[in-house]
């Protein structure tokens, strides 16, 4: 099967897409098309960590409102040259870099629904 020539299983779709678009099979790592990513609601970078590990992704920007998560994200990843937005509501779509993939980690609930938490201790979202 010709698709086995791709470097990793995670790259099969990208190789197939490249064949459809250009009529050429990308076999070498340097020739694979790069997918540009914007990381919304980034947190400490869970999506980024996985995508960087898979390879073939370039991050063009990120957004996170929590100042402690921002500090952790900057400490974990090289964010130089990437657009940063503190609040997703303030993103200027006209000045936003082109991207192919939008990833976003939405907020978790503070407690599972089945757990009984006194009303004084629970925080409203």
Protein described:
The protein has 125 residues and is α/β, with parallel strands linked by helices. It folds into two domains: 1-32, no CATH class; 34-125, Rossmann fold (3-Layer(aba) Sandwich). It has three helices and four strands. The chain has helices at 12-22, 46-54, 67-76, and strands spanning 35-40, 57-63, 83-85, 101-104. Strands 3-2-1-4 form a four-stranded parallel sheet, covered by helices on one side. Residues 1-12 and 23-30 have low confidence and may be disordered.
Please give the largest β-sheet.
4 strands, parallel
Topology-level CATH name of the largest domain: Rossmann fold
How many whole angstroms does the radius of gyration measure?
19 Å
Q: Largest beta sheet: what is the strand line-up? A: 3-2-1-4
Please give the CATH class of the largest domain: Alpha Beta
Shape summary: globular
Mean pLDDT: 75
Beta-strand fraction estimate: 15-25%
Low-confidence stretches: 1-12, 23-30
Specify the helix fraction band: 10-25%
Domain unit count: 2
How many distinct helices? 3
Please describe the structure with a list of short key phrases separated by commas or semicolons.
4 strands, disordered N terminus, 125 residues, alpha/beta, 2 domains
């Amino acid at each position: 099967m010709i698709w086995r020539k791709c470097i990793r299983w995670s790259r099969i779709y990208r190789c197939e897409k490249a064949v459809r678009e250009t009529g050429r099979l990308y076999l070498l790592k340097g020739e694979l098309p790069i997918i540009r990513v914007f990381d919304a609601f980034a947190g400490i970078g869970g999506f980024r960590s996985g995508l960087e590990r898979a390879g073939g992704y370039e991050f063009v920007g990120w957004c996170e409102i929590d100042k402690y998560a921002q500090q952790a994200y900057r400490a974990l990843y090289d964010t130089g040259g990437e657009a940063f937005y503190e609040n997703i509501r303030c993103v200027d779509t006209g000045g936003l870099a082109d991207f192919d993939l939008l990833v976003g980690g939405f907020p978790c609930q503070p407690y599972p629904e089945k757990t009984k938490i006194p009303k004084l201790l629970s925080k409203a979202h």
